[in-house]
Amino acid sequence: MADAALRIFISYSRTDSTFVDRLESDLNANRFHAWVDRRKLEGGQDWMDELEKAIDACHVVLIVVSPDAVKSEYVRMEYRHGRAQGKSLIPVHLRTTQKIPMDLSTLQWVNFQEAYEEGLRDLLIALNRLSIPVVSATLPLSDDQAYGSAQPQTPTSDPQKGSTASTANTSKHGEDIHQPVELSLGEAYNGTKRTFLIQSPLYCPSCSGTGEILGKACTMCNGEGQTTRRKRIEVAIPAGVVTGSKVRVAGEGQLGLAGAPRGDLFLVITVLPNPNYKRESNDLFTDLPVELGTLKQGGEVIVALPDGKRVLLTIPPKTQNGQEFRLTGKGMSNIKDGTRGNLYIKVHVILKFD
Question: Comparing C-alpha atoms, which of 144, 232, 148, 138 is closest to residue 194?
Fold first, then answer.
């Protein structure tokens, strides 16, 4: 259970007051001390000084992210001051916004968009983790380590924070999950999106991931320290993937030990063969049957692309059987820079009999 002395400052836009009132009540009911500034937005040095003192007195700053909060200079100021004072920062994603404010993308978010209850559970887990001793109090974790940065931490020595080398001995990065995915050539041609329903591991909210309560095995997780919940995720698979390509979904792997970062989910791609096309790197090759009259006199024929779209190919007069044409930029996309290869079409005569 979390330390009752853990104090939380909630930074928000006034348009989100209903949500914040509920969140404050639930946090206080779970033995945290949440503080919300409901003063009239007046500004001025005295007003700002009081606000900064309130942030200084807290351990954690929750940033409620919504379209209005992104535009709020007060929210930005509260974020900057909390970061400057070394507070633990947790973005709470309330409503979708196209612009990710400040540098919040580097932190681990708690999602309240889909369901309030699930968001609250994840938030309580994150806050409980702040109260679980991972290393000695004289060797505190950095914010990135505490919140599961996607990049593994390199042991360093800091005269103010002390050596973090012992962290590597007490925490372990969560294992990655590899999920095979089959794509058609058409899906690989333009890229696609896939939706997955996964069993996402979570720290047990009852025992805060320890597996024990008062020295006995936790009954909710059977002493495992973690539970699972069904979670729907949508993953964009870029154009140009090949068999063996891996698409990384950060932070959707197994839980780390002792507060270490979670592993990642990797989609391992297999592009299924298409009998109408041969692929060589980013170029495609196909055969096209053309009537003898069109080869002799010239004309236009329809060429189907892997994604089902159609383009016209001009056949000049006196074209020879087996001649190859090139459609520039109609091949597969280069996954690194987005440029496309070519589509090579070899024409073959077909004879019609009355």
Answer: 232
